[in-house]
Amino acid sequence: MECAGRGSRGPCVAPATRRCGGCGAVAYCSVSHQLSHWDHHKQECERLEQQMKRVEALNEFPFTFSEEATLEVFEKRESRCSFLSKRGIHGLGMWKYECGCGDSLASANSTRSERESWNLPRELCPCSGPASLKSDALSNWKDYFEWRCLPLHSPVALLLHWPLLVYYATQIAFSGKSGVETTKQLFIHYIGPEKELFQLAAFGELCALFPGVRIHVELVGPAIPEKRDGEKIDIDDYAHCQGADCMCRSSSLNKGSAVSSCMSSAVTLRLRKGFYHDRYRDITEDSFPHLVVAPNAGIAAYPSWLPTIELIKEMNIPAVFSDYCEEACHLAARCIHSVTGHPIRIPIQLNPFRQPLVVENSPLFIPCYPNCFLFGI
Prior knowledge:
The protein has 377 residues and is of the alpha/beta class.
């Protein structure tokens, strides 16, 4: 933990072990830093206290590894590196970016991530089409794993939270609206990709989630390498398992599936470097979106979001944002209200498809997860 009052009255003099007696969510290095920070903290203390009461819900997952991936990593008895190492996937393919070891690699990496494999046995990953069509909308990870016939000790949710975010965003954005379910093409503008640029193969799962629908995703953000600006990527296969003799190595996207005759799905990704409000005109020459999705947005932290929020308001289409914690969403909602003059349309809610591996070194005594909470306009 860092001292919440760092920089407010000279340098920190000790580790931040003095927790606020009201909310318990922040800590200080000294009494003087706590007192000097109070004018700011008193505006958030009660709100953070309420969020602390909901911590147990954040750590609730159906997986056999849930305690290890949540409490043990949060309390530093385990790490993201050790979690991945125990499963034999540390530093491999798409997994290398799920711990700090991959940070230095990401800036220089130019591999074709849409061709990466799961680096897992067939029984632990969705390397081919589903055995059956979804009978109902998926509402949580347990539903998804049962539908895809995956065991609850499989770690694939650590990567699949990206396509499941897109899937769930459409569920909450178009709830009660007709027409979306029957569309044959779905255009999504995906703002601010970072780590997922090195895990694009996982987006092949959108074909299973949207049977019979052609998915077009424009990934727009400053993290996209200059040399890949404008690149079009057609994903016509699921990410492969590690089995050399598995049919996923030779089959097309839907072959071998019990529902292949019902599916004509495919995913097209296009990469666009720059801020969304700067690239919007270029993008909409090709497609006007049904939905905007912005993962781990950090709206309150980046002023560059303000013109993008104004643009989305003018476009008058639904937009769903996620963030690492409830407090970040609250601050974002306040920013959006100041720009649009309206409250958020989709209230802040816990994402049932958040990544089930806690973020290390949280700034609060509240666990943070990628794509943890959602809200929308």
